[in-house]
């Protein structure tokens, strides 16, 4: 079966090996004398300028998930899947100023993770631990999602076996290579590979959106074909090329909630902290939406697949279909083999860049907020870097295990659960950058309330398409709260609102009870510091302590 | 490599204070794309795209324009004093 796809496999493998070599060489790229420091391994020396940051953060946020799951959702549900476009539009103006503050305070104090900041700001190792664990747990399914992207491509090329091990062997090999060069080069590897990834993606998408509509009779008939398909299959009342009265609230809250969540993910913050100065961040926030355009066009590949009559490949259980294969199958049908191979490589490499950054971010969280905080207080910078390197390997093994043992039917749902989880760190991390009004105890209480409610709501949601009774999506019917309506709402928004409410009420209570709120380790001035400031990333003593003494 | 040359004094005037009335402009590209009444319709179609799709893609331009504008207007050696 794979012999029919020989050209595709050769092109895919060649490009894949090429970037692997780049990953290993990256250790020497812009490298300092001493790589044995978390700032170097985990943040690329905190020295990236505008272009590198653009590719790095873009390569980080727009992942294989983009290429595979968004068009799959559009293919299956129509307009609802297009939520990714408003989501990636509203995100940048929202974090435009917030991230600059985070950058400044992090560089002054040598913070590597958002939990480092929380530790210092609220004088609470426990709250920092909560934020760190939340970050790690939310990142794991996100890494697994990248593997789903590679798997969809391999499946389309016929690289599948009968047994579970044989089916997953190519992914295990790919991830072993990824793990090896991430171990060696740290954040420099994905930063360098991101150039190749994005070039491939832009080429593939430009060709696809110029060429495919001509073959399929123009954009008008593509949308008409999609509409006809949604009309014909009436089993899902919420599909269609437009939103209906019941899912508009879901669309808007999902876009807004996902946007709130995106820069709370530790890996997005890693990309931001690796930049050289505030200006780089601001310029990137205005330039990154160029990716959103590509994302919108990629989403529409789902409709092109409908118009081209693509049938997704069978899923892992008999009778089911693996929706994630629609785009790979579309390319396989519509393009010459060599070009399909390039497109597959774009997806495959598109999975490696974010997976590397995510595993680095998760490893940094473990090192700074668990290992250094609770296991080895006096860890040297070299020991920190070493622990991070090893943890990044463990994280990747965990992600591979997720894919081998879980059914990745609708991989987007995994990420939506992660989004609900990570949103619960919003009051401590994002609002914490602006105000210290919330009490540290109240932030923990709010986190617990939001997390509990979010998980309960997700548990209540069935997925009729996959016949699962729980965790079937993120659209919670308001009727379950007793409202007389068929409207649904994004779980994350409800959970984070409850989180905020609880945090506010408990803050008032703790204040009334005069419970100690701890000492703020940051000064108002820290939030405006920029490159050139004598205290930004101080040289030899830059690492000092997780909560260094705020210099007067 | 790292931000070296600590000789240059980072005086208060070299630091950007984030406060500027122009920042309020950022709310436009946050709010407008989240109002379904504007985009949730088929007509008019542009190049075959229903309004739902071309208008939301056009919002990307709105976002880029606004953030770029705010960036230029609040740049340290620019309008901000």
From TrEMBL, chain A:
Gene3D superfamilies: Sodium/glucose cotransporter (1.20.1730.10). It is found in: Membrane. Residues 520-552 are annotated as: Disordered. The keyword 4Fe-4S does not apply. It comes from the Bacteria. Keywords: Membrane, Transmembrane, Transmembrane helix, Transport. The chain crosses the membrane at residues 6-27, 48-68, 74-99, 126-145, 165-183, 190-212, 249-267, 288-310, 338-366, 387-406, 412-434, 441-459, 489-510. It is a multi-pass membrane protein. PANTHER family: MONOCARBOXYLIC ACID PERMEASE (PTHR48086:SF8), SODIUM/PROLINE SYMPORTER-RELATED (PTHR48086). Belongs to the sodium:solute symporter (SSF) (TC 2.A.21) family. This is Sodium:solute symporter. It comes from Micromonospora carbonacea.
From TrEMBL, chain B:
It holds the Pfam family DUF3311. It comes from the Bacteria. InterPro entries: DUF3311. This is DUF3311 domain-containing protein. It comes from Micromonospora carbonacea.
